[in-house]
Design brief:
This protein is an all-alpha fold. The protein has ten helices and no strands. It is globular and about 70 Å long.
């Protein structure tokens, strides 16, 4: 019988990245397939407002993938399976690309690429303000999510920069909350998940500080 640790190590080395990539592409494949069905006059799941359904789906997908990226470290800590860290940046980049598609769907189909209308929406609509702030702050994280940028910035500066992802996630879930009419379960679930992940991060930081203090007194 093969050793369980060896199997997991082999899976992490050979299969984890391609399988995660496929999983990250599935939402795009689904929405593209729905549009193909719509254009062919076939039954689809886009409803009576396909444009609105599209950018809502892309936005919610971006938030969910972003939350998954934040869950990678707690998952590693709880399972002790280090290979999962290999896909953390890939998942984070996928969140950025879905957020970009979400923005383009709204900017193109709703505003017809009008910058004055976009600026007006940012100033007048609270949920647009939060959403644009989240996207703008996500851009530098996406740009620096490559090995050569980590080397250029240095590991410490890179980690500090990417800690902003928690603030960005808070902006994103707030954007979703205000975008929905009334109290909907989706945004509340996202807020709850983010609260748990942020609480875990704070607890781990406190625990690390306590250990360092004990070590310095020893």
């Amino acid at each position: 019988m093969p050793d369980r640790k060896a199997v997991l190590r082999s899976f992490g080395k050979h299969w984890l990245k391609p399988l995660v990539l496929i999983a990250l592409l599935l939402p795009f494949v689904w929405i593209a397939g729905q549009w193909i069905l719509l254009l062919l006059g076939r039954p689809n799941d886009l409803g009576f407002e396909p444009v609105a359904a599209t950018h809502h789906f892309l936005g919610q997908t971006a938030i969910r993938i972003l939350l998954i990226s934040l869950a990678i470290t707690p998952f590693r800590d709880l399972t002790k399976w280090a290979p999962i860290l290999r896909v953390r940046r890939r998942i984070g980049l996928a969140a950025f690309w879905y957020a970009l598609l979400h923005l383009l769907a709204y900017f193109g189909a709703d505003l017809f690429f009008s910058l004055p209308k976009l600026w007006e929406d940012v100033l007048e609509r609270t949920y647009i303000t939060f959403g644009m702030a989240a996207f703008v702050l996500l851009v530098p994280l996406a740009i620096t999510s490559f090995d050569f940028m980590i080397r250029k910035l240095g590991a410490m500066k890179w980690r500090r920069l990417h800690m902003a992802v928690y603030f960005i996630a808070a902006l994103a879930v707030t954007h979703h909350f205000f975008a929905e009419k009334g109290l909907q379960p989706g945004p509340l679930v996202h807020i709850g998940i983010l609260a748990i992940l942020l609480g875990y991060r704070i607890w781990k930081a406190f625990e690390t500080r306590q250990k360092r203090a004990q070590a310095s007194r020893a």
